[in-house]
Prior knowledge:
- There is one protein chain.
- By secondary structure, this protein is an alpha/beta fold.
- It has one domain: P-loop containing nucleotide triphosphate hydrolases (Rossmann fold, 3-Layer(aba) Sandwich), CATH 3.40.50.300.
- It is 50% helix and 12% strand.
- It has 7 helices and 5 strands; from the N terminus they run βαβααβααβαβα.
- The protein has helices at residues 19-28, 37-48, 58-77, 91-99, 105-113, 140-156, 169-182; strands spanning 8-13, 32-34, 83-86, 119-123, 160-163.
- The protein has a 5-stranded parallel sheet, sandwiched between helices.
- The longest helix has 20 residues, at 58-77.
- The two termini are 27 Å apart.
- The model has no long low-confidence stretch (mean pLDDT 91).
Amino acid sequence: MIHAGERLFIVTGGPGSGKSTLLAAAAAAGYTTVPESGRAILQLQVAIGGTAVHWADQATYAELMLDRELQNHLRHAETGLATLFDRGVPDLLGYARLCNLPRREHLRKAAELFRYNRKVFVAPPWREIYANDMERKQDWSEAVRTYEAIAAGYDEAGYDLVELPRVPVPERLAFLVEHVTHG
């Protein structure tokens, strides 16, 4: 069974490129958004002293993200509403590549079965706004490598990347809304 999601739009990119800030602005403007799974998992794992985090057990972290992304997809595909996701299933193809995870076939299958709108919005690395925090521990070069791996994952999954401009949040949001509502 293929779960098509023509009304499901992904905003992706490397860490610290303004994705979450953009989606917070979209949510404040009334758009349906889905927060990043990875960040939520990191927060929970840190709170319980778990090891399913990017800097420890990357394989388990990837599996937790996959499960959450599949659940989010199913939940929002049923609504028929235009929904903006902070990352999606194909991000995991890039993550597996970045971390050299050995088992990738099930990730490919998930990306094949759980589809989003073909147009994926990608936030390019933006050094001027990049900052570390409690969950974002990557240095700048790893952030750039993450962006490259994620872009390659979406390419592998057959999506068309639309680069978000490096402009203030209101202009970035207007760009996103224009492309989502008018194709």
